[in-house]
Amino acid sequence: MSILKITDLVVKYGSKPVLKGIDLEIDSPGIYALVGPNGSGKTTLLNAISNLIPKSSGKITVFNSDNSNISNYKDMSYFPDQRVLYPYLTGYDHFNILMNVYKIDKGTVKRTIEKFNIESYIGKKVGEYSLGMKQHLLIALSSVIKPKLMILDEPMNGLDPSNIVKIRKLLIDIANEGTAILISSHNLFEIDMMTSKVYFLKDGKLMYEELKLEERVIFSFEKDIVDESIKTDTRFKIEGSSIEVNTKDISKSEALSILGELPNKIVDFKIQSKSSEDRYREIFEI
Q1: Pick from 210, 238, 267: which residue ends a domain?
Q2: What is the C-alpha separation between 248 and 13, in angstroms, rounded?
Q3: Cys-Cys crosslink for 249: which of 37, 88, 126, 235, Cβ 3.0 to 4.6 Å?
Q4: Is 39 within 8 Å of 33 (Cβ atoms)?
């Protein structure tokens, strides 16, 4: 089953075309990045997919059905940014809304709150939240319905490094559980840490590239590696306090999920390959 398919999509604002014949297809879980400069039409594309704005021509299907079909949205989530949250409601109030709309049981909500580690502030009004708290809440709300397709517009925007790391791991875990995530972002470094599946949007056209099919990632740890389960895994090349992985053998997201669980903490990493930033510079002639 196709999760998302776009064919020759055109979107105009008045007589001005913003999207000029977009083609895109996602047919498996994973993280897919949408990259382009400000004003290139990224948010317009996400809004068109979610049927929040009309298309001028072309076709969009979600789960093999036209994107105007309201039944699609029981398996799809889209929170544009933290402005969709109600500042005078608590985090739990927002979950209550979804419980009523999607008929979600309280047990599922409780497990989601615990999984995203937002128990300490879920009872507070969202107007009192920091930006990081709001982004955690948004992703928790997006995932509670266990969507097959999740769309996120700049979820890392404005976050400090600690929250970026937390959000990154949450998104990787969600994708590994079977969700296709389409994420727009300006943070090309974070894109490289999450996926090699990148759509570049330029002049209203979309270019898809499966970047870095083969690359080396070297993780540095606090101390020498002694964990036997890692030592016996041939996908990991260990030298002292460093572990090298080749993405031909294991994806970055899977490697990060495994290594992130070790008691020996990751303190640094290096990616040795052409990055999405390198490709961005080529495409946009920077």
Answers
A1: 210
A2: 43
A3: 235
A4: no
Q: Give residue 278's identity as a one-letter amino acid code.
A: D
- Dihedral angle sign, alpha carbons of residues 164, 166, 167, 172: positive
What is the residue whose two structure tokens read 């709001």? 134
Cβ partners under 8 Å of residue 8, min gap 6:
21, 22, 23, 57, 58, 59
Collapsing DSSP states into helix, strand and coil, what is residue 269? strand
pLDDT digits (tens, 9 = 90+) for 118-156: 999 999 999 999 988 998 999 999 999 999 999 999 888
Please give the structure tokens belonging to residue 130. 């920091």
Amino acid at 247: T
Q: Is 144 exposed, middle or buried (0-12, 13-18, 19+ CB in 10 A)?
A: buried
Mean pLDDT to the nearest integer, 204-229: 84
Question: Is-contact 101 121, C-beta < 8 A?
Answer: no
Domain that holds residue 222: 216-283
pTM of the model: 0.77
Domain end (from 183, 210, 237): 210
pLDDT tens-digit readout, 5-50? 999 999 999 889 999 999 999 999 999 999 999 889 999 999 999 9
Query: Which stretches of 195-266 are DSSP H helices?
Result: 228-231, 252-259
Beta bridge partners of 66: 61
- AA letter at 262: L
The sign of the dihedral angle between the CA atoms of 35, 59, 50, 21 is positive
Helices in 103-160 by DSSP H: which ranges?
106-115, 131-143
